[in-house]
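Q: Joint fold for the lines below.
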Amino acid sequence: MFESLSAKFQGAFSSLRSKGRLKSGDIDEIATEIRSALLDSDVSLSVVESFILQLKSRTNEVLEDLNKSTNPANAVFEIVNSLLIEILGGSARRIRLAKKPPTVILLTGLQGAGKTSLAGKLAKYLKDQGNTPLLVASDLQRPNAVTQLQVVGESIGVPVFAPEPGNGVGDPVQVAKNGLTFAQDKLHNIVIVDTAGRLGIDAELMTQAKRIRDAISPDEVLYVVDAMVGQDAVRTAQAFQEGVGFDAIVLTKLDGDARGGAALSITQVTGKPIMFAATGEKVTDFDLFYPDRMASRILGLGDIQTLAEQTKGAFDSETAAKLETKFASGEDFTLDDFLAQLEAMKKMGSMTKLLGMLPGMNSGANSGAMKKQLEQFDEGELVKTQSIVQSMTPLERHDPKVLNGSRRSRIASGSGRQVSDVNSLVERFSQAQKVMKQMRTGKGGMQMPPGMPTMPTMPNMPKVSAPQNKKKSRSGNPAKRALES
Amino acid sequence: MAIFSKLFSKIRAGSSSPGDWEEIEEALIASDLGAKSAAEIVEIAKKSKVDQIDEAITASLQSWLSKNNREIAFNADRPTTVIIVGVNGTGKTTSTAKLVSYLKRENRSVLLAAADTFRAAAVEQLQTWGERLAVQVITGPANGDPASVAFDAVTKTKIEAIDYLIIDTAGRLHTKSDLMDELGKIRRVVEKVLPVDEVLLVVDATTGQNGIIQAKIFMESVAITGLILTKMDGSAKGGIALAIERETGVPIKFIGTGEGAEDLEVFSAEGYLSGLFR
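A: Joint structure:
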């Protein structure tokens, strides 16, 4: 996400960095580059112009001081960063819960923005936090929107209030109202009302949305918007603001390569914060929106915070502690640990998405080769590797050296793979083991944070091309072996 | 997008301050044409004589538009196969229904394949349309293999010598390579029985510059033959259509202009261009 935008920013700044001392003309130059980067990213023109004006005035104000600092380009970078954070809404905002439950949330937006999917994701998110949400199917327009919500509700274990079949039959205002009463009776503490998509210029449907709003007086009206939307974003958002009014924005389809200009435009023009972002097709691909993190991502600084949080969530503390002690005490890294890591990786979600959060991943010199690798990364490989390890005996997992031909062929048939798959796993594993040892002995340049030792064992990574001294005898003593390698 | 005539009225009246030109460029950018094309149009206008601005711009726009055939394929001697693709939420299923309605009005027999087995209730959505339009819909199990649905449908189409087979597929972001591969598989499976005549990419008119990337990637992986531009009844100016044609050479074949089954128009390049200055 935001990839192209961040690549352009990086390009602009690298030319600025090469300058050293900055003149007013240099500022104009980078301002022009940023302007075109923002426009190509569908940030609306008025927002771009005001952004550029602010950037210029702030930078020129402090130009003298800037040049005294050791790295003026970085200081300009900081100004851009803080401007972006300001536009994106400052700090993250959460759902305001009503003093007297239920809290009523109304979803609005254009057709195809992803309201119904979002309703499910939001419900799941709130349910996981200990709430008891109810979904209300007030989209009676689109064929089978009601059924879609019912299927989604069932899959996440959230009840759906759907008295009307939809497909043009029934009164959405009445459904919303009855849904609210139903929730009060059944003691649901949150009600999420899904409504039909409508065009900003459709007066009739806009009035209907207003009537739904008046009937249920929601605590939060959320405007759902597709991250890929173009220059029309502002006009449509304004139409919704005037028509129904909304309290916050939800960005969907952020997992594409949308440059997300809409995010900047809509928050700037409506003054409303982005509250959530949906980043994938699964119901769990959904999180609070953090303006500072998003700004970092736009600027190609990566999103370490989110990465750290997801890692923490996936590794239960026990596993992490165990791995850490093992790591510190110099004990051997076994296939069992490897398996634990794979499972954690699967819990963390898509590898491509995770790696996209690393700094510099979307831009700069790495981007070409790295991106290609990311694209080719096969999530299925994880499952394959897992099945092979699971077909091994405890002894084999602990000491892969015992894996002779007959054991390997047994494992292959047990896991439904080829012997060559087993061979390549064993080879990759022994390389990973080596890397771990190097890191422990401080030979490797890269320092991995504890609890994150997954990277060097990433399946599918190109084979380490370091020459292998196969002839060298391998000592039975782990410490000695570590020194040898 | 009848913006041009109004745009240049000041210039025609003799004024040409930098502010006027800026205003024009802004209006062009606001139509999602893209910053580059907008600047080019302004340059062309600046260079030409005041009374020839319209002709000059029309000529260059003409050269940006695709030269390919805009009519939907039709084979007299065998069934015609159409696959509908696109990112999530652009209106694939609705466009599929509209296309069926259009073909029925042309007195063609149609079979529908619900190969969107992923989105909850997508199959039911298409079935509802099928009932309304009195067209048979081939379905498979939820979360089943979309290619197998396509295969069943194309086999039936061939046996029963139906005029058109239209395959509705699941929305997919063009960045998901595994999902793009799945589309390739659907195509290959259909080709085992009948050649694929059309792969239509459904693009939302409100899409920004990302639409160009979408079109390029879909073209690489499934060789799209045309575009259906949806939601043209909104406030979006749909400049992205011109931008996509310019960048990829893929022609727009239809535009969606409303929520009803008959709200689909055959795109006319001449009409589109002359409409700009009316």
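Q: Anything notable?
A: The beta strands of chain B are 80-85, 110-115, 136-138, 164-169, 198-204, 226-230, 252-256, 264-266. The domain at 4-64 of chain B is CATH 1.20.120 (Four Helix Bundle (Hemerythrin (Met), subunit A)).
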